[in-house]
Amino acid sequence: MYLVVPMEERHIPGILEIEKLSFHTPWSKEAFYQELKNHFAFYLVALDKDKVVGYIGSWIILDECHITNVAVHPQYRRLGIAKNLIKILKDTVKIKGVTGITLEVRVSNHSAQNLYKSLGFLEYGIRKGYYTDNNEDAVIMWLKI
Ligand SMILES: CC(C)(COP(=O)(O)OP(=O)(O)OC[C@H]1O[C@@H](n2cnc3c(N)ncnc32)[C@H](O)[C@@H]1OP(=O)(O)O)[C@@H](O)C(=O)NCCC(=O)NCCS
Fold first, then answer.
1. pLDDT tens across 73-105, in order?
2. 111 pocket-lining for ligand 1 (C-beta < 6 Å)
3. Can you tell me which residues the record assigns to a coiled coil (predicted)?
4. Which end of the chain has fewer CB within 10 Å, C or N?
5. Under CATH, which architecture does the 3-103 domain have?
6. Cβ(94)–Cβ(100) below 8 Å
7. Pairing of strands 64-72, 100-106
8. Nearest CA to ligand 1 atom 39
9. Residue 56's CB: how many other CB atoms inside 10 A?
10. Is the pLDDT of residue 1 over 90?
11. Who contacts 65 (Cβ-Cβ below 8 Å, separation ≥6)?
12. Atom 22 of ligand 1 has which residue's CA nearest to it?
């Protein structure tokens, strides 16, 4: 059993741990503190008791929601946590007037692409060399809601 709640300052250490376990170039502590002050940002965390086991970040600009990051702790993967985080994000931003959700995903990241496709996201194109660490292309995906 886990709970999904809006991100608060006390969740940041747990989020940073998952960032480090999940990405070659993890976001910094300062980046997440900035997001807490950013009026466009909307973040959710999944909690197993008090432990952060996953999170999703987004920016809501007018009627579009741009997912900035999503990750689940390696020990909690394939339990449907990311899928649920995206579903809850979708239902919440819909109430805020959002009509479409978009994101970029590495062309090599097939697990994440499978996750998004399983929720109805469609591929809309490629951003060449979007990831500056290895110049990898990004697949642009959209879900109309
Ligand atoms: C991608 C990620 C967020 C998925 O989180 P998760 O909680 O394990 O995903 P879910 O359990 O909700 O999976 C839902 C569906 O996504 C797909 N999927 C998830 N992980 C997969 C994998 N490793 N291989 C293939 N398909 C996968 C499956 O269709 C899965 O449904 P199923 O388990 O019934 O087959 C997680 O693997 C992660 O944190 N990866 C590192 C960070 C990352 O790549 N983030 C995305 C950046 S764009």
1. 999 999 999 999 999 999 999 999 999 999 999
2. yes
3. none
4. N
5. 3-Layer(aba) Sandwich (3.40)
6. no
7. parallel
8. 71
9. 24
10. no
11. 42, 58, 59, 89, 93, 98, 100, 101, 102
12. 111
Q: How far is CA 33 from CA 19, 27, 62, 69, in A?
A: 14, 11, 23, 15
Give catalytic status of residue 116 as yes or no: yes
d(CA 83, CA 36): 23
Tell me how far apart the alpha carbons of residues 72 and 78 are, in angstroms, rounded to a whole number. 9
Residue that is written with structure tokens 């449907």 in the block: 80
User: DSSP letter string over 30-87?
Assistant: HHHHHHHH-TTEEEEEEEETTEEEEEEEEEEETTEEEEEEEEE-GGGTTSSHHHHHHH
Would you call 43 a catalytic residue per the annotation? no
Identify the burial level of 16 via C-beta atoms within 10 angstroms of its C-beta, where 0-12 means exposed, 13-18 middle and 19 or more buried: middle
Domain residue spans in the chain?
A: 3-103
